[in-house]
Amino acid sequence: xxxxxxxxxxxxxxxxxxxxxxxxxxxxxxxxxxxxxxxxxxxxxxxxxxxxxxxxxxxxxxxxxxxxxxxxxxxxxxxxxxxxxxxxxxxxxxxxxxxxxxxxxxxxxxxxxxxxxxxxxxxxxxxxxxxxxxxxxxxxxxxxxxxxxxxxxxxxxxxxxxxxxxxxxxxxxxxxxxxxxxxxxxxxxxxxxxxxxxxxxxxxxxxxxxxxxxxxxxxxxxxxxxxxxxxxxxxxxxxxxxxxxxxxxxxxxxxxxxxxxxxxxxxxxxxxxxxxxxxxxxxxxxxxxxxxxxxxxxxxxxxxxxxxxxxxxxxxxxxxxxxxxxxxxxxxxxxxxxxxxxxxxxxxxxxxxxxxxxxxxxxxxxxxxxxxxxxxxxxxxx
Length: 382
Description:
The chain is α+β, with helices and mostly antiparallel strands. It contains 14 helices and 15 strands. The chain has helices at 4-11, 31-36, 40-43, 54-70, 108-131, 149-154, 166-171, 178-191, 236-258, 280-285, 289-294, 298-302, 308-316, 365-381, and strands at residues 15-19, 25-28, 72-80, 86-96, 99-106, 133-139, 144-147, 198-204, 210-219, 228-234, 262-267, 274-277, 324-332, 338-349, 355-363. A five-stranded antiparallel β-sheet has the order 2-1-5-4-3, sandwiched between helices. A five-stranded antiparallel β-sheet has the order 7-6-10-9-8, with helices on both faces. The chain has a five-stranded antiparallel β-sheet with strand order 12-11-15-14-13, sandwiched between helices. β14 (338-349) and β15 (355-363) form a beta hairpin. It starts with a helix and ends with a helix. The model has no long low-confidence stretch (mean pLDDT 86).
């Protein structure tokens, strides 16, 4: 009859085994069959280390020697099952009386979750490195700040060499911008919902370079205690490109506003919307800019009734990007004046593939009047 201890050993969910001094299995409990599919007759006399994954055998030997000296050791390794799969087992090993006593617990699920976490962190770190976006997490209660490796690199700091903190960020913030950064951070801690979505400021990196960074932060959802999470990104090139474009736009608009002609971008057809028109349009035709951009039908309505069909016919010949328009017709100004115009433009393609006309309307009224006067003089002398 089995003792109470023997019954408990057979009912245990842990892998229990005994080996001789050479590591050959002398006893295994029923858990080996339930967990791994091995029956006792399959294992007795077999060396236990041969059950371990080849990649982990070298690490097992020194752990066993340590166990012999200290009487007990902890080892984690993969063990093969009868169907050829591998299970991660957390072993407690004891050497006593010329024998080894082993107790193993299945930790496969935990190791898989850890591997997924490590892989996920590695993928995130790689994505941050490629995109140049660092991340951070701040626990207000513990006053604990954590930066990703890329966060350190944005400031040209080596990850792990210094402790992350708001003081460290402020230390690398341009002196003229520190007050704004401190105010932004204080607002985040007071009420993140009222803080701006992002903040751009200058930093002085550890390598001496001055860069522009963008900081974004919000309260992490689903946390027991509120935490701030966010990102930091070097936006220097983007901001410089944007500033250059803005400067170019200002120069272009200043030039356009000085040109004694109407510069425009508009859709094709009698109701093509006018996206842009230079201020000279008011001087030439009387209607202010807002009338032209707000009323798509104003262009067609302002054409002299006798010239509308011809003006539309000239536009209808335009089929695709790059096509050129040259059309002359009369327009009726707001005060009733008849203005002869020369309309020259190029077809361009909009963001959504629609065709637009970018062109210039020149006032050729005086030129046409001079031609007519010259013709009349010529007719009288004949």
